Amino acid sequence: MLKELINKKINCNYDKICGILNTSEWGAKEIINNNGITTIEDIEKLLKFIGIEIVEDKKKIIKYELQTEVNQKIFRNYASYWIMKKKYEVRESTISNYANLLKNVIIPCLGDIPLENFNNKILQHFAYWAKENGGIEGKGISEHYISDCVLLIKAIIRDGQEEKVFPEFLIKQTKIPKTLQIETKKTYTEDEYKKILEYIFKNLNNRSVGILIGIFTGMRIGEICALKWEDIDLEEKMINVNKTLQRIYNPLDEFEKSKIVITPCKTSSSQRTIPIANDLNEVLKQFKDDKDNYVLSGKIKYTEPRTFRKQYDIIMNKCGVDRIKFHSLRHTFASINIENGADVKTISEILGHSDINITLKTYTHISKKQKTKAIDKFNRLFETQDAKIEFTNKYKGNVCCINKKNGKCDFIGSIKDVAEYLAETPKNICSIINGIIEDDSYNIVPKIIGITHDKSGIYVGG
After folding, report:
1. How many whole angstroms from its chain centre is CA 268?
2. Contact, 94 vs 246, CB < 8 A?
């Protein structure tokens, strides 16, 4: 890396450093490219010539790395300075995400704007611009990425306000423009799963075993790529998920644009143990290898995610199913388990979610089959001779007050309890439930398993 830096600084004009190294132009080239001999004193002179200082004090190195040309007072320079500081505070993969958002979306729009011009109007302008023009191809980016970019810009501005280089203004909420979301298939059907399993069991190898692990555990692709045999206990039938492998891209690093990193799982909930199904356990026994070998490769060398994705695509084509991305195995694992009555909290822990609401929000809306089943169950509750659904004071079940603003359940109780909570009469509460009148703040609906709550009693709406 030092060799590349020196060559860049002198632009391969070795005649510039002949005098410093006390040699010919050819000799200077040989020394820089690790084929020559020189003294430490001459190397120190060379590094000083190109602006690199050798120090023993690590604090001095950090102080040097934080220096930047913020005196130019434009956004791109302060963003670079901010990134340099963050290197010591967050994970390397997070820095990579920040750098990609800055280079591909934020800097093209805001890079040359003077810091003194920043205000809420600039932030709103950026959000609208990003919808139409953001991204590498300049064709616009999704709501999700616009939101990520806006949060990043606001973090940089707040930091700059503390350092007194951005103007002091109250950062307000930025409206994120809606982008067209094309509905794509997220899960395999049970019939497709059967086809996949049938093919894999007939064509077992390390790669297909990796897909099998995804099917039976819902593990993320980075977690499977990082899995070693030491992480699998075939006697106890457990997989210990403790690390993830990923290729991170950093467009701001001139000499190393991308690299593989293996890191501990991001959160404590992601570090988990997953039971191994009997069929999977029998297969793993056939491939059991040295504890230091990776499961996917069967070697001391890992298989990276992009390579495994290509192998997955090939196998899915051979299975005769419409291929969807590898992450769909995780979605399918969750949705099939939930559809078949598995406890949502247990599935949440197996998936490594930090909050059960993430599981509910991500997976319980997927299945048309599940929705139809719930509605049919709801209708059967009120089947009478005249098929009339009407709630009265005699209704013994609980009803829910669903906040119209945020979709959350603010109160659950009997019709009488709800009437007291809202300072209304029970008659009016029944009229609201029956759709005769409307409340300004709440939708009032019966508490029904499968519609408002899951089997464990957890609210699933909103």
Report:
1. 15
2. no
